[in-house]
Amino acid sequence: MAEVSAEARIEAPAGKVWACLTDFPSYGEWNATHTSFPSGGPESLETGATFTENMKLMGFPAEVLWTVEELETDRALAIRGKGPMGVTVATRYSLAADGDATTVRIDGEFTGAAVSLMAGKLKDSATAALTESLRKLAGLVA
Asked: Domains of the chain by range and CATH?
């Protein structure tokens, strides 16, 4: 298993950050691993909703079938997906209001036999992607 996380303080209220975070048509503007939604984002954002995302990590393209596991408007979004080679991916976005700003944390987890072969490189690449994603998200909402 490989676990990664990144956190940033974004100078915008949680509602504004949440709106950008859950605006799937603009996902590619801030999410560093996202390449496309072949069928669009989830039709409605609710627990149990599914959607497919094409992404790229460590230079490798992957298609992930995501399921929304947790949803708390303006506070948390957790998704878990099945990727290629039996890899399971989990991502959790947490938002905490901090005055007129918001602390945003992204936690990710990769599990599966293929992960153990490249866990170190995967952690480095995924952490860099999360950090870049938060930087871009801050730029969009600030």
From this structure: 2-141 (3.30.530.20)
In tens digits, what is the pLDDT along the chain, a chain of 142 residues? 889 999 999 999 999 999 999 999 999 999 999 999 999 888 889 999 999 999 998 888 999 999 999 999 999 999 999 998 899 999 999 999 999 999 999 999 999 988 877 778 888 899 999 999 999 999 999 7
**Are the C-beta atoms of 33 and 54 separated by less than 8 Å?**
no
CA–CA separation, 78 and 72 (whole Å): 9
pTM score over 0.90: yes
For residue 89, count other CB atoms closer than 10 A to its CB.
24
Q: Which helix (H) or strand (E) holds 129?
A: helix 119-141
